[in-house]
Write a structure and sequence with these properties.
Shape of chain B: globular
Distance between the termini of chain B: 57 Å
Number of strands of chain B: 17
Shape of chain A: globular
Number of helices of chain B: 9
Radius of gyration of chain B: 19 Å
Radius of gyration of chain A: 13 Å
Largest sheet of chain A: 3 strands, antiparallel
Strand content of chain B: 25-35%
Order of helices and strands of chain A: EEEEHHHE
Low-confidence stretches of chain B: none
Oligomer: heterodimer
Strand content of chain A: 25-35%
Strand order of the largest sheet of chain A: 2-3-4
Number of strands of chain A: 5
Number of helices of chain A: 3
Low-confidence stretches of chain A: none
Distance between the termini of chain A: 23 Å
Helix content of chain A: 25-40%
Structural class of chain B: alpha+beta
Largest interface: A-B, 13 and 15 residues
């Protein structure tokens, strides 16, 4: 994990809506709609405010979304960010976003 | 020779109908009696039309071919079913060509300002239920499309004639009278089709939108015990997206309108065997709000 320097940011223009226990997202780039678990929203909100690599995002998430109780949080965050990147909901790059 | 045209206000749309198969003009005038009519030189939001097949094709079988502003994938029908072609092409143009509204494949009825959206794909019974309720104390909004305003989230009436198939035709004809029905058109992919005229009060009030208060997915079965089951917002979302012709075209605006609708409006699946049962279920569900 410490060697993963991928810098993540929320896909520009991404729309979110909380619907019950799930989160609905719309990606304007692909024009696709996604329905994901509600914790996705907390992760995206944190990432919106603190773009960065998985380790720094997990630190921010622990503070801002009170996720410190999650075991192996940095690993979980890294996996979730990679999944979201595969779906096009976050973008990853090797250089920090300006 | 000039082509017969009708320029009518159909809910929020002003539509030019070009009737190149002029024998359907009396049927159009009968079904759309009461809709505001304009002179041919007025501007229209949409143009739709029906023409007969070309000269050589006429020696095989004369067909009716629909056309409209939005490219349509329809195959021709026999000329005797030109009215069906016109209604199909109107559906297509409204569903795909409306950019001020999110279009949902649904019937709509209302009590006062409370609109009930009855989503369903073809054959779900939404047309029969919508027009039946429209002649039984509800305000008839639509049998085919719910038009959801992108800015205000209101439902806008689109009270065109209801498209009925097979057994539904006799049921509704017995309720509303044969005078309010069109001829029957046998040669369609869905079997026999006929149209029921919208109630006069629905046409008179078609400029007045209503607030969506209930989404009810109708499920008719001859032996069904009347009951309602909640549908969670995300399931409603998926079902409505699948039945929305223009959701993808609207992009972010469609997403915002759709999520606002399923977040704010409770959804149920209703099972019923008779119109009166559905009527009672809907009134009970509305009263829970």
């Amino acid at each position: 994990l410490t060697q993963d320097l991928t810098h993540y940011a929320v896909t520009p223009g991404l729309l979110t809506a909380a619907l019950g226990d799930l989160t609905c997202l719309f990606n304007p780039r692909s024009q696709t709609t996604h329905i994901l678990p509600d914790d996705t929203l907390a992760l995206l909100e944190t990432l919106e405010a603190h773009p960065g690599d998985a380790l720094s995002v997990s630190h921010a998430l622990a503070v801002h979304a009170d996720a410190s109780a999650i075991e192996d949080l940095p690993v979980v965050v890294a996996q979730r960010l990679a999944e979201l990147a595969d779906m096009g909901l976050v973008v990853g790059s090797m250089a920090p976003a300006r | 020779m000039s082509i017969p045209e009708r320029l009518l206000d159909l809910g929020p749309h002003r539509v030019r109908m070009r009737l190149e198969t002029p024998e359907i003009a009396p049927v159009v005038d009968h079904l759309y009696a009461g809709f505001p009519r304009h002179s041919a030189d007025a501007l229209a939001d949409f143009t739709v039309g029906v023409r007969a097949s070309g000269f050589l094709r006429r020696f095989i079988r004369q067909d009716a071919i629909g056309y409209c502003d939005t490219p349509a994938p329809f195959v021709p029908l026999p000329r005797e079913s030109a009215m069906v072609v016109l209604e199909m092409i109107l559906n297509w143009q409204c569903g795909m060509g409306s950019f001020r509204f999110l279009t949902l494949h649904a019937g709509v009825v209302a009590k006062g300002d409370a609109a009930v959206i009855l989503p369903g794909l073809s054959g779900a019974g939404k047309s029969t239920l919508s027009i039946g309720l429209g002649y039984a104390g509800w305000r008839y909004f639509a049998d085919e499309y719910a038009l959801i305003g992108l800015e205000d989230g209101l439902v806008y009436p689109y009270p065109r004639p209801a498209s009925l198939k097979n057994a539904s035709i006799d049921i509704i004809a017995a309720q509303i009278g044969a005078d309010a029905m069109s001829p029957r058109y046998p040669e369609t992919a869905k079997g026999i089709v006929a149209y029921a005229r919208a109630p006069a009060d629905a046409v008179a009030a078609m400029a007045i939108p209503a607030t969506p208060k209930l989404i009810a997915f109708p499920h008719f079965a001859p032996d069904a015990a009347p009951r309602a089951e909640p549908v969670i917002p995300t399931e409603a979302l998926v079902l409505l997206i699948n039945g929305s012709p223009n959701y993808l075209k609207l992009g972010a605006l469609g997403f915002q309108a759709m999520t606002r609708l399923v977040r704010d409006v409770p959804a149920y699946r209703i099972h019923y065997a008779r119109q009166e049962q559905a009527d009672q279920l809907l009134q009970e569900l509305l009263s829970r709000d």
